[in-house]
UniProtKB/TrEMBL annotation:
Entry similarity comment: Belongs to the ABC transporter superfamily.
Residue stretches of biased makeup (Basic and acidic residues): 311-320
Domain ABC transporter: 2-227
Record-given protein name: ATP-binding cassette domain-containing protein
Length: 320
């Protein structure tokens, strides 16, 4: 497990992470969510010994990362901070990582095949596209066949096929009983892959719960109605206490009334229905609602995550 307890980090007068406590358990994909500047990258860097906390602790399997012998065999990490040397080939980059952690050379070939870079093994990293570089970062994270994965924005630069491949990979690794922590701003993708969510804002915990519970607890169910008489039906719905709102394509999203009740009113008023469907709201909608409530509607503190800024340019990655 990854145990974060009362983790705190300050940069000058700004508290980037304040008293953060949560546990990432094996056998599930845990989504780590929060707006820019929420402290996600700083938290991950403290987990991996790259940033020293001012208070609290982060332990992996009961030990700080700095105490792990041959860490790549315990934790596979991908953080957006720095890139491999551009003059190295993909194979050579992985070979020196493998040698430094006493990992068999044959494992390099295996992970290159896993991430789809077998044919590019002898190409220099400097010739790689952003997506290829991201796959190489994932290969490094998988190199030690670790029981724990910590991935910061791993889908950056991947195309649709690559995103689907990564989703299947993460799900399969969780099914094997590994601990998987993933941060992402792509809510639609996170809704497909995560079993559990840890949501933070301004360095403080807003939610630590299962995906289904998060959606049920914070969701605002609504009924989508599509009819050629949208304006007339909308007035009737309001008269009966519902709250309809028009979508950009002319449908009505109705809160406060069931689909059966809407169907009855539409029939009584002679309004044909082309669509009548019940929705719980998307993860993106619910996430924005929770973030807004947690920050008083103001979102994250401006300026971005100082921990990320200190690490280097966005879009690069490092393998710890």
């Amino acid at each position: 497990m990854i145990d974060v307890e009362d983790l705190t980090k300050r940069y000058g007068p700004a508290t980037v992470v304040g008293g953060l406590t949560f546990t990432v358990r094996p056998g599930a994909v845990t989504g780590f969510l929060g707006p820019n500047g929420a402290g996600k990258s700083t938290t991950m860097r403290m987990m991996l010994g790259l940033t020293r906390p001012d208070a609290g602790s982060a332990r992996i399997g009961g030990r700080p990362y700095s105490e792990l012998t041959h860490p790549l065999r315990h934790v596979g990490a991908l953080l957006e901070t720095s890139a491999p040397h551009r003059g190295l080939t993909a194979r050579d980059h992985l070979l020196w990582l493998a040698r430094s952690n006493r990992i068999a050379r044959g494992r390099v070939r295996e992970v290159l095949e896993t991430v789809g870079l077998a044919d590019a093994a002898r190409r220099r990293v400097g010739t790689f596209s952003l997506g290829m570089g991201q796959r190489l970062g994932l290969a490094a994270a998988l190199l030690g066949d670790p029981p724990v994965l910590v991935l910061d924005e791993p889908v950056n630069g991947l195309d649709t096929e690559g995103i689907r491949w990564l989703r299947d990979l993460l799900r399969s690794m969780a099914a094997e009983g590994r601990t998987v922590l993933v941060s992402s701003h792509l809510m639609a993708e996170m809704s497909r892959v995560a079993d559990h969510l840890v949501v933070i804002s301004r360095g403080r915990l807003l939610a630590d719960t299962g995906m289904a519970d998060f959606m049920q607890r914070h969701g605002r169910p609504y009924v989508r109605v599509r009819t050629p008489h949208a304006e007339r039906l909308g007035r009737e719905l309001e008269r009966h206490g519902a709250t309809p709102s028009r979508t950009p394509d002319g449908a009505l999203d109705v809160v406060g009334m069931t689909a059966a009740e809407i169907s009855r009113l539409a029939a009584e008023g002679g309004s044909p229905l082309h669509e009548l469907s019940t929705h719980a709201g998307s993860l993106e909608e619910i996430y924005l609602q929770v973030i807004g409530e947690g920050t008083g509607g103001g979102g994250a503190a401006g300026g971005g995550d100082p921990g990320r800024a200190a690490g280097g340019r966005e879009g690069r990655n490092t393998h710890v």
